[in-house]
Amino acid sequence: MENLTFFNKAFTYTSVSFLFLPFLLSVLCQNGTELSPVESPLPLPSPPLGVTTKQLIFKDRRLAVVYPIIQAFKRTITADPLNKTGNWVGSDICSYTGFYCDNPPDNVSAITVAGIDFNGFLLSAPTLQGFIDNLPDLAIFHANSNKFSGSVPDFSKLRYFYELDISNNAFSGTFPTTVIGIKDLSFLDIRFNSFAGEVPPEIFNQPLEVLFINNNDFTAKLPENFGSTPVLYLTLANNRLTGPIPRSIRNLNSTLIEVLLLNNKLSGCLPYELGFLKELKVFDVESNLLTGPLPCSLSCLEKIELLNFANNLLYWEVPEELCALTNLVNLSLSDNFFTKVGPVCRKLIKNGVLDVRQNCIPGLPDQKSLQECAEFYLKYIRLCPYPSSYKIIPCKDNAAWHHHLEGSKAKTKTETKTKTKKAPITYKTLSRHKF
Asked: Is residue 410 in some structural domain?
């Protein structure tokens, strides 16, 4: 009977038949005691060493289950400068700072811990292992700007989990592959840590909406399946990624809104397939080793607002069709080797939209020296693959554009047949991350 000491003393007897234990639990736990017909009773673990549940009454047995887990984690915290854990006391877990409760999908009369938001708490702890991975109904965990470290827990057994933010912490080691097992993961933010090594290609097979892995120390090439995830926001900036931008990026034509690849070591020519990203608003590849001309297909990016190709090895003329895009707010081509801009582009220069400083354009101020430009064109010019594609504007070439659209529709139908899955079951009151 030691495990029943967290209930009110009025219901504690010196001798209770084991056969009456389920009945006793249903009486003592207030609200949400009805279990799903397909669900077995949740286990009530023995309190960890130093954690007592004596004389506590919980609103629901699911809260009784997680109470000792939370208290055990609290004991591992080595710094709490803002005293965020000060009210982590007593049985009212739903009032703890950073904890959010809800009715779980499998039992709308129950109450459980559904989300955790530690953003900006500045907590320090050597590990999250044994904490969030042991909260069985958790759907969201946000912990931006703390000092958590150790290895990232395995969330794959948390049936409702879909949003993880551990950015700006002290995690290190290789990419946390435990996140690959989270079948409904849609939001992953691990930026501003010290992860290193390769980015596993499997992460691009996840049905993600948001992938932020910037400001780490990831290396190796972008994988060929780069365009396999239906991502909306993709940020891989400030790493050491190499190789070309994969042509499979065209598969993101109906989803990708923003992609940030700046400050890496990407090389090769810009793929013609960039022109098919019809939802794209922001594309930033500043400070890489990209080369070749700008593909005219970029003029099909009707929703684009910011294009940044600064500090690369791009050359030849700036397409007039690109400068004619009506939603452009900023087009940065500075510190490249362009040699020509036409009247439409010159109008953008005058309006402060187009930046072509430090190029090789005769008659414009603040350009590279003639010697530097001549040396580049004599020594470093290489033909790009599929050179004829750089003049094609697919949205104006009805045959090419409709062929692409029909191909996309056919692919979508095929994927619907082979990859259809039910929408993830989650909480009614939890809203997914908004931008």
From this structure: no
